[in-house]
Amino acid sequence: MHFLIDSLLSAILLLWSFDPxxxxxxxxxxxVSLSSTLLSSILGIPAGFFIASKEFIAKRVVITTFNSLMAxxxxxxxxxxxxxxxxxxxxxxxxxxxxxxxMVIGQVIxxxxxxxxxxxxxxxxxxxxxxxxxxxxxxxxxxxxxxVFREARFAIIAVIIAAFGRVIAEIGISMMLxxxxxGYTRTMTTAMALEYDKGEFVLGVALxxxxxxxxxxxxxxxxxxxxxxxx
Amino acid sequence: xxxQLTDLIKIYGGRRVLDIPELNLEKGDxxxxxxxxxxxxxxxxEILSLLIPPTSGKLxxxxxxxxxxxxxxxxxxxxxxxxxxxxxxxxTTVRKNLEFCLKIRRIAPETRExxxxxxxxxxxxxxxxxxxxxxxxxGETQRVAIARALVCSPKVIFFDEPTANVDVENQDVIERTxxxxxxxxEISVMFTTHNVAQATKLSSRVISLFAGKxxxxxxxxxxxGKIMEYEDGNKYCKINEDISFLVDTKKTGNxxxxxxxxxxxxxxxxxxxxxxxxxxxxxxxxxxxxxxxRATIDVGVQVYAFLPGYQAREKALYIGxxxxxxxxxxxxxxx
Lengths: 231, 335
What we know:
The complex is a heterodimer.
Chain A: H1 2-16, H2 20-53, H3 59-69, H4 74-85, H5 100-124, H6 128-136, H7 141-151, H8 153-168, H9 172-178, H10 188-198, H11 202-230
Helix pairs in contact in A: 1-11, 2-5, 2-8, 3-5, 4-5, 4-9, 5-8, 5-9, 6-7, 8-11, 10-11
Chain B: E1 3-12, E2 15-25, E3 30-34, H1 41-48, E4 56-61, E5 64-65, H2 73-77, E6 80-83, H3 94-104, H4 109-122, H5 138-150, E7 156-159, H6 168-184, E8 188-193, H7 196-202, E9 205-210, E10 213-215, E11 222-229, E12 235-238, E13 244-247, E14 253-259, E15 265-268, E16 278-289, E17 292-298, E18 302-308, H8 309-315, E19 322-326, E20 332-334
Helix pairs in contact in B: 3-4, 3-5, 4-5, 5-6
């Protein structure tokens, strides 16, 4: 037990000393995760909104497919993207393997279905009367759609936070497509796995503390926004 | 003519919820749409508000055929506003709820304030202008929804059960506002209700809906009955053990029927001998509505009759009086 307490104290000291290696790992993690969250939100939120708002053939099939893809294992995405971007792959010529771009591509594929599915749920939960009210007040169908979107805004923010939470904590894609290259593609989760392999716990615990702190800060921010919405 | 409906049918999930061969609505009217829950009132209002298309049939607005897939639908919708039963206000302030309508109509910001204040004044909600809309009570929400409809400067306003879930104070304000909208702003008004007294008090025309059909009655005397053919070849309708009367119909078996309250005659109970088509009952309510008297008579079931005011005075009717009621065969409509 004392080794855990020792590691915790050393980790706090490491964070306090502003160790550049540690903070660069945090920076890479945040950069890659925020990029993939942003990209998947730009693509997934309009897609989810479209699927939820329109009636079309096989709508249920599409929704079920996206719901199923929410459980996509990270190693499956890693393998799939690896098959395309490795030297022998179709996109091998782009030389993307073991780059931050490759990690972003993998993470976007991982969370795109999550963003789409949760957006569909968020939009579907908005009372139909909002759309009808906007239309009867003279809004165009597009403006009525914006009203529905506006009423779902806090649920949509929750979607983005859920997507960010998924990628900041994932390891399979970062390891397989990023390669855990020190000073370039090493993220918090891959660094923690490496430290575990080495039997060194100080850096691992320090990064664990940071991961929990990030999750805590994001949730405080979300609660603040929800509070403002109610006010 | 404001609206003309021809052979209008709406089917939901295989069920025919509206079936109106013909219905015309005049400009400038304040019209009540009377009917029980599930009679198709809201569906009809939503079709007239151009929010949902009918399954088949023709709808004309101001002599214009409505194509629900047409590009000018938004332009036409801007003349017709529907205030829903339990309306929703957008999750922002009261003022911004009203401003939304003016923004999408590209009204200049400097003129918006005046229009918003005028509308809020009309429903007595100006002091709530900067309140969060979703914190208002049911009655206040209904009043803001009316103000929001008014800033749209519509030609027609539809109210779906405007006083169904509000207290008496808010009910008075809403009823008065509906009258003012119609009188002063010359906006055609149609509202749905299942309150007969409210319908007759506020409107110049009452349309009754029953099971999706316009029925030629004020909906009050609607009963379930069974039609049986007697040995003399006549058909009688029995609505309970004591009440059966002659009907003229080709139908047999279980039916729904309406007895027009305008065609029910009252007479002193001692003057008549009860028999088929003549029933003895007791007056349990008398109310005055637009110069005529509405009598509620308990004959085993409650029956409503309308009498001209002078006739009620001549007969010196009082609550508790025993009376006889009778009606001609053609006062009974079977559907």
